Amino acid sequence: MAQDTQAPDTRSRPQARISPALGRRTAWLVALLPLLLAGALIGGLGEGERDRSPLDQLPAGFDSTLGAELRDQLPDEGSSAAVVLWTSDEGDLGQDVVADLGRQAGSLGAVPSGPAGPVTLSEDGTAAIAVVPIESTSATQNADLVTELRAQLSEDEPSGLTSQVTGPAAIQADLAAVFQGADTDLLLVTAGVVALLLLLTYRSPVLWLIPLTVVGVADRLAAVVATQVLALLDVAWDESTVGILSVLVFGAGTNYALLLISRYRDELKVHESRHVAMSIAVRRTAEPVLASATTVVLGLLTLLLSVVPATRGLGLACAIGIVVAAAFVLVVLPAALVLFGRWVFWPRAPRVGEPGLVDTNSSWHRIGTLVARRPVAFVTGTLVVLAVMASGVLRIDTGLDQADQFLDRPEAIAAADRLGESFPAGVSDPAQVMTRAPADDVLAAVADVPGVQRSAVSSQGAGVTQIDVVLGAAAGTDESRDAVLALRESLEPFADTHVTGTEAESLDEADSAARDRLLILPLILALVLASLLVLLRAVVAPLLLVATVLATYAASMGISWWVFTRLLDFEGLDNGVPLLAFLFLVALGVDYNIFLVTRAREEAREHGSRVGMLRALSATGGVITSAGILLAAVFAVLGVLPLVVLAQLGTVICIGVLLDTLVVRTVLVPALAFWLGDRFWWPRRVIG
């Protein structure tokens, strides 16, 4: 087999004709006009804006969401609670200190908590708290007010005491602080990583600038178009949406660019005219790129079926981003490249007559030859390795409490932990019962629920009553979850009565995530399989490719679980990670298989199935490996943001893409093709 591939490349060439968009007189127009129009849209429109709602992150139709909707009908629906905590560095606070704190709390607008005034002293005497309403209409205003409150407390802090701010308003403010300037930081780091890897890939001081510029403009245009569309359709998105969109556009767009430029370089070794070479390269690249982009877009659009509004917004935004990225790579990038001569590849400029499309001396050819000699052994060995890696899947736990959402420990979380040492754990963030039923009857029912420390009406209006319920158990524990479930069970007889708050929302988030996975994961698989069936017009190859991607996902989740729990000391996975990781790994992971097998099909027409796969591996090995490493590095950049969910998502995808690129696409898929031969393409026949 290896001997056959040493023969000169006699593959029939497509007719040497130049695409109208790539002609000498038109290329500059096709290259510059879209860039200028994109610049005008970016500068003129800017990113879309929409008033964010607390309901954006809550699953529609669930009990906590229904409760939040009732809470929005209260006259003071724009208020949130900040809990001020004073702790003594030397022991008991003393009555004189408590009286001074009461006056300070009153000046801050704290609400009375009983006959003693706005300040409540702990039983051990080492801590005191006051609840300060934060009247805000947006997350930005809430963050500003909490910052002002902290500054005022620090300025007036009594000697020997430490003041901190926690509670729902402070936690939301600290979360907003995580994203302050984050989009810019993430964009700069992503662009820097892409630039470095392109420079290392091409080893040219000039060439890397062209795809980076085109993809960079596509990224900014995608952010503008996506957010404007979301705002027009009133679809929710959150602070992380644009960041994930940028990572996806840079990753996928650069992957497509690498594939195009690699094929262009090969064609320049055959054709003297760069315009002819690029025309052929675009025709040969368009099918796998469009197939890949279509698969990713369809997969992303399945997120529209999620019950979480912000997840639906993420799916739609990223789908728009992939469309923009593919369009720029297939239209703008080819025209931009042909404006320059071969010198743009300096110091490795291709020359006509050089060894071209298949390098039989490459490491990829040697790997392919080795795999071809014993394909069954490589299939078996690779599957065993992936199965061992996937063993961690059986131990995965999902669901993180609020304290575990941050990589860094913000003041609100640290203060909540300290508060729990001196007060009932639920004081800083009580559960909330929202009802239209008689308040006294609901209070009586709540009082009988195990785990409830105390309850009281905190707000009334428009026929709605809010009852704050302090739970004795710490947030995120089984006891606190059981108490919320018991609350809901006891309140079932009351019409239009719902339990909301952080713990209730966490329970519903887990249930909604399970519902989304059950619905969306099979649909993604079906769409990917359908895309491959249409592209390859075969049955066996698509089924095997989908199976290999599933194996990659299981292995990456399994190995990531060991990394998270053994090395990074996480308690579990965020509820959203399994679904998003599955989407990106399956939709993006199948890209490399598409790039490989479409080239293998092309080669098989001339050389037969087995030799065709070997030649395809030799031809695409370098570019696909570069693309995979680049995509893995780009998703790892999500760790720039100190949020656990993004760090976990980036880690899983990084590991999965590397597995897919270096193991599955390099060894497993070729081994299956070598083993099956023509049966790999059944029922289609190849000519060799």
Give a brief outline of the structure.
By secondary structure, the protein is an alpha+beta fold. The chain is built from 20 helices and eight strands. Helix 18 packs parallel to helix 20 (644-676).
How would you portray this structure in words?
This protein is an alpha+beta fold and 688 residues long. It is built from 20 helices and eight strands. It has helices spanning 27-44, 63-71, 95-108, 139-155, 168-178, 182-202, 209-233, 241-268, 274-301, 309-338, 363-373, 375-390, 411-422, 439-447, 478-490, 502-536, 540-567, 577-607, 609-636, 644-676; strands spanning 79-88, 120-121, 127-135, 161-166, 431-435, 452-461, 464-471, 497-500. Strands 2-3-1-4 form a four-stranded antiparallel sheet. Strands 6-7-5-8 form a four-stranded antiparallel sheet. The protein is elongated, with a radius of gyration of 30 Å. It starts with 26 loop residues before the first helix and ends in a 12-residue tail after the last helix. Residues 1-15 have low confidence and may be disordered.
Give the SSE map.
Elements: H1 27-44, H2 63-71, E1 79-88, H3 95-108, E2 120-121, E3 127-135, H4 139-155, E4 161-166, H5 168-178, H6 182-202, H7 209-233, H8 241-268, H9 274-301, H10 309-338, H11 363-373, H12 375-390, H13 411-422, E5 431-435, H14 439-447, E6 452-461, E7 464-471, H15 478-490, E8 497-500, H16 502-536, H17 540-567, H18 577-607, H19 609-636, H20 644-676
Antiparallel strand pairs: 1-3, 1-4, 2-3, 5-7, 5-8, 6-7
Helix pairs in contact: 1-7, 1-10, 4-5, 6-8, 6-19, 7-8, 7-10, 8-9, 8-10, 8-19, 9-10, 9-16, 9-18, 11-19, 11-20, 12-17, 12-20, 16-17, 16-18, 17-18, 17-20, 18-19, 18-20, 19-20
